[in-house]
Records
---
Amino acid sequence: MKVFISGNIAPAALQRLEENNISITQWNEDRQITTDELIEACKDQDGFISVGPNKINADFLNASKHLKVIALHSVGFDQVDVEVAKKLNIPVGNTPGVLSAATADTAFLLMLAVSRKAFFGYRKITDGNWVKYEPAQELGIELNGKTLGVFGLGKIGLEMAKKCKAAYNMKVVYHNRSRNEVAEKEIAAEYLSFDELLAQSDVLTVHTALTSETKEKFSMEVFRKMKSNAIFINTARGGIHNEQDLIKALEEKVIWGAGLDVTNPEPMDKNNPLLFMESVAVLPHIGSATEETREAMAGLIVENILAGLNGEKIPYPIY
Ligand code: DGY
């Protein structure tokens, strides 16, 4: 059996695939593979491990009908045309559950970094602008006892909420399509309408999938409904906020700060104004990037691939 991998995955997973007599071809270039190149690379493969935002769209899927399985190196699957995959009966699997703690850590890190202008302070030193102790500069906002608003309280949102409650005794409010009874019971999370969530949150953290409903949900109109001292955190997908509106909202002090692990587009341009703002912290989509989590993700990928190649039901299907 042959499998194409469009990037790097944990070595232990490669070894397991090889132990199962799978012949691997990997994309090793320093740029994302294009859809045309992907179609070409997968044309005589039995399986495909998709690393990064490869467009698994109708063009790709129709040209790759022979694939026995596609395993995503992510929990998010907004890059997949699920309806077409379903119609063509191509099993597609993801990596749910294993990256919740690491991604929530990243959201927490960004929240704290923004609240204390940490990235700006670091840049001040590296730019050679730290000239004296100045007590009236780089003043942050304390988090203790504040209200955390979670937009999308699933596994990752719940991990983030638990951390905020444990560290800062934050009150947790949330908005979801459906109520999260576990969170309501475990951490007394309070369900609010979307507008109430915006009005009450001191920190608003996004943990929802990118869908047609959530695309650019956070626009100027929405930022205007938030508190002027609110912090916006997005570790989910860059497409959920409108980046130009976010820049404007920060410049015009409609909101106080923002922490982003995801941007639109990715990679972000090095001259993007967000990178030069005091109360902004940006990371290059490293939400789940820990050794432990990458290994766990790769473990689920191997399970999906082996099951798919054997014609069995894959254990972590997206549909
Ligand atoms: C995920 O798992 O969806 C991460 O964002 C990596 O893409």
---
Amino acid sequence: MSTTLITGISELVTMDPAHGPAPSAATRPHLGVIERAAIVVDNDAVLWSGPQSTAPDADEHVDLGGRAVIPGFVDSHTHIVFAGDRSREFEARMAGDPYDGGGIATTMAATRDADEPTLAANARSLLTEMHEQGTTTVEIKSGYGLSVADEVRMLRAAATLTPETTFLGAHVVPPEYRDDRAAYVDLVSGPMLDACAPYVRWADVFCEPGAPTAFDADESRAVLTAAGKAGLGLRVHAGQLGPGPGVALGVELGAASVDHCTHLTDADITMLAEAAPDGPVATLLPGVEFSTRSPYPQARRLLDAGVLVALATDCNPGSSFTSSMPFCIALAVRDMGMTAAEALWAATEGGARALRRTDVGNLRPGSRPHLCVLDAPSYRHLPYRPGVPIASTLEL
Ligand code: NIG
Ligand code: FE
């Protein structure tokens, strides 16, 4: 297998404890930064990194002319398999309508009407958009089919695009079950889970007792417990619309991640801190707060309490139709009090932890050779140059 030496790297972020200066307040967590660096990769793995002056030979050579290289972004929460358009819903929201998840039914109807190749093609084009902006690992959820056949179709399409697939049959109660929620929870925890399990690694629930169509603690526990018994890892949409039992449930059931965390109680933060670092990662999705005009999550309190934080796009047609991890980093720094280093860690290593992966989100030897190159000298330019497409995946 041929090897490639990449030089001309002004700043290489490895996330490797073996590299870089001791972290200061501004650069904590430890990013493993090497200045004037080089890296050697083959098709499967990072082989070596270090100062360019000590670089070994390789079969091929690429010079980046003084640009920064970081690990490819890990977008650990997306809903990119869907059909239809909800730009008018967004327009109405900007004119004052609240976001309550009611539009999920609009996407469900359009998704049920679309054939599987169309669903796969829609998702593939969003995946390409993500890849072009430096994202190299993407989690994809179902949740717009909400029948056995339609959830299977969504997940079969998703599984052609990523190994990080998530069953979200418990997204909302579909209209045909509105008068019999218990029957829908039984369907999701039984026949729908059985049919979807071959295509997924994870299961998720929209746990939101204040929203009439989402799921309360008991309903969510029933679905997640069944999914756990089926061998799936667990994730929770928690505290998006208001404070609720989602975080506590995620901690109780050993979920890999609790996502949104827009509304957290003091007890939620204490629980997450006590469960860290092996308990759920708090995955923050600031594109949602931006696109729904909600208050941003208390990232600073989570970080100061020692909770592991990830950043993801939540790319979906309703609450956050962005595919851009750099945009989320910019929001996290501008509006959530995270340092550039914390936001970069959360968008790479943090996402990997939320997916319980050690081979992505970092550039340590043996990890996947997923490189994101910045048209800038430093990762600090990610929040400094908002909206400017400086990040791209390095194709070798
Ligand atoms: O993560 N909260 C539930 N699900 C998605 C939004 C889905 C939609 O509005 O279509 C979310 O925000
Ligand atoms: Fe979501």
---
Amino acid sequence: MPDLVIENLTKAFNLLKAIDDVSLTVADGEFVTLLGPSGCGKSTTLGAIAGLDRADIGRIRLGNQVFFDGAESRFMPPEKRDIGLVFQSYALWPHMTVRKNLEYPLKLRKVPAKERDSRIDEVLDLVEMAPYADRYPFALSGGQQQRVALARTLVYRPRLLLLDEPLSNLDAKLRERARIWLRNIQSRVNVTTVYVTHDQIEALALSDRIAVMSKGKIVQLAPPRVVYDNPATEFVADFIGSAN
Ligand code: ADP
Ligand code: MG
């Protein structure tokens, strides 16, 4: 079942088309990765889905919610979109413990107090951070902070998860471990996910499907195995090949 539907999305900065006629459908519960070199338009696409940025042309909808329709000048403000967003700089609130960091988005969404604790415990368990609930962010490693940032997004159960290079601040070894638990978590919560990375290995390891981007366009959209074995263009072959 299609969940997120993006049609003919275009966004220019001055004369440069950062994204150029991007269409993409993500199924319910699917994990799709936007993969490509720096500057190819991944973050601009994600920003348009999140509503941080407004595209010029095209349509975006999630289920029956219209996020954006250029022709009809419809634009749903980001806070109304049922999404969870995690960036590479996973800024936790430094003056709040892990538990308070997770409680805050629940308070914002008016989740009743008696339900909050059980939800927080559930996601802390999920990201294996339960023992750290009362710590402040400064007393956590980068990888742990990153897991808390993900938990803070999952705790309010968004319909759509948007992740922009969430592992890129971690060192190589930690990144490899993080890939494994990220994949585990996604398969357990089964939330529709759009993941952004310039790291081929990460994309191959995590995704149900990969959208390879170049110069604002999707040049191939296929499962990892197909992208790897049958790259659609020389660009894709080079980019995937450079993983080794
Ligand atoms: P990626 O995330 O794949 O590295 P981006 O989506 O951030 O790429 O950027 C795509 C292109 O759009 C790049 O050429 C970038 O310089 C340009 N761009 C992105 N955001 C802005 C902006 N706010 N103003 C001007 N140009 C931008
Ligand atoms: Mg980017």
---
Amino acid sequence: LENRIVQSQKMQAVGQLAGGIAHDFNNLLTAMIGYCDLLLQRHRAGDASFADIMQIKQNGNRAAALVRQLLAFSRQQKLEVSQVDISDVLAELSHLLRRLIGQGIELELHHGRDLGLVRVDAGQLEQVIINLAVNARDAMPNGGRLTIATMIETVKFARRMGHETMAPGDYVVISVTDTGSGMPPDVQARIFEPFFTTKPVGSGTGLGLSTVYGIVRQTGGFIKVDSTIGVGTTFTIYLPRVAPLEEPQAVPVSREKAPTE
Ligand code: ADP
């Protein structure tokens, strides 16, 4: 189970990174191959350098082919967004969560009533909760309590949330609270960075929270952390609530292209 989680965190992160890096590499390689062509024009086929430059160009072309594969892989990770009830997702996860955190930690789930729906990829939302639960467990080596609660919050005025501004509206809120070690401010400031970890080599990837952050932002949501050394940590996630009016019948129907005037 542990390996599967680390593996899936890695896959998510690789997918996200791959798209961006592959794109830049593609541009760099195109330039390198272009310069090879320029050099080749200045040499005759029999020259000693000609064969060497050909080698560089061929390898450049092979690298470009690999990069294209990587781009294809990252595009494959299609989102399957649907309208879900967070309570259903949590109920389905509760078994796995209990196994994940082990014996010494108590698990409390508080479901808010009539939460409404949010528009997410349910698999990604599970990943978010699992990543937060794994971190909570790691922060409580001597046991403690993990509390996951859901509720609705109406935000009346635009609100600062980390680097972002949260628009007014109804949000479904998920809070994940542990009674663990807590974090000092300098750690809190860096936790969402990819590859930032305070865990020993081999046990932390530093990708869990950057993945969480990526998914939450991609879903149009927000995340914040509150933490006190020796008391514990709460991660709070806000996801835009889908208004009841937007349920099935109101989904816009795609229309045939109107004739051009
Ligand atoms: P990893 O768990 O692999 O280190 P993450 O991105 O999930 O990577 O977390 C980054 C760091 O944030 C952790 O190494 C840890 O220092 C800190 N952290 C995350 N969650 C908690 C928590 N619930 N309590 C204390 N520290 C935490």
